[in-house]
């Protein structure tokens, strides 16, 4: 059975961020918590110089595409539940 790779990209607005340092603190906390809890790879992939906007990517590998969707759906719900940031858009792809 071939391996499946799931990719979730999420665009966020860090609502209370006044500086890049504020944004980095929220993003680092969120990425550390998600990667530990759900065992997914995480990275900030866009909007690095924006004071409030951030683009994150989460990925997982499985032998079942449905399992990848389930994991990434759980990750998205966890990101949405963080009160420090608002999800503006998201996209899930399975390869």
Write the layout of secondary structure elements.
Blueprint: E1 4-14, H1 20-38, E2 41-46, E3 53-62, H2 65-80, E4 85-94
Antiparallel strand pairs: 1-3, 1-4, 2-3
Q: Could you walk me through the main structural features you see in this protein, from its secondary elements to its overall organization?
A:
There is one protein chain. The protein is of the alpha+beta class and 95 residues long. It has a single domain, classed as TT1725-like (Alpha-Beta Plaits). It is 37% helix and 39% strand. It contains two helices and four strands; from the N terminus they run E-H-E-E-H-E. It has helices spanning 20-38, 65-80; strands spanning 4-14, 41-46, 53-62, 85-94. The protein has a four-stranded antiparallel β-sheet with strand order 2-3-1-4, covered by helices on one side. The longest helix has 19 residues, at 20-38. The two termini are 13 Å apart.
Distance between the termini: 13 Å
Helix content: 25-40%
Q: Give the strand order of the largest sheet, numbering strands 1, 2, ... along the chain.
A: 2-3-1-4
CATH class: Alpha Beta
Which descriptors apply to this entry?
39% strand; 95 residues; Alpha-Beta Plaits
Outline of the structure:
By secondary structure, the chain is an alpha+beta fold.
């Amino acid at each position: 059975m071939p391996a499946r790779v799931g990719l979730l990209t999420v665009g966020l607005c860090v609502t209370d961020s006044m500086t890049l340092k504020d944004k980095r603190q929220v993003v680092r906390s969120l990425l550390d918590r998600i990667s530990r809890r759900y065992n997914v790879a995480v990275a900030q992939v866009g909007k690095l110089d924006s004071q409030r906007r951030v683009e994150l990517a989460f990925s997982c590998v499985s032998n079942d595409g449905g399992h990848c969707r389930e994991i990434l759906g759980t990750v998205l719900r966890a990101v949405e539940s963080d009160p420090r940031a608002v999800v503006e858009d998201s996209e899930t792809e399975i390869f």
